[in-house]
Amino acid sequence: MRFVGLPGEAALAVVTGMLFNFYAALGIILALGLSAWQITIMAVILSCCHELVLVFLGICHSIIEDTVVFIALGANWWVLIGARFLIAAFAAFTVSFLMRPMPGAVTIKPK
After folding, report:
1. Are 103 and 52 in contact (CB under 8 A)?
2. Number of domains comprising the chain
3. pTM to 2 decimals?
């Protein structure tokens, strides 16, 4: 997770969101005490699939259910999962690069 500016513990939120839902991931994100910038990156990671607003988990959320549905329609599971992971990683890296704090910018630090 460091390549997108997040602590390693953020991976737990990503995996939880992938396997369960956004709300479980949000609970973990709140417990991590991330900065506003890091929360924005996680939001992008968590919901890019259905809303291009919030990146990685958005593309990969509900990956098990979605993959099962597409397998039933004849798709290759490894292509679906691989493509979603690669696109999510690229999107998270891009957002992280574009949203880097600028020197002298005001930052919000968690308590």
Report:
1. no
2. 1
3. 0.45
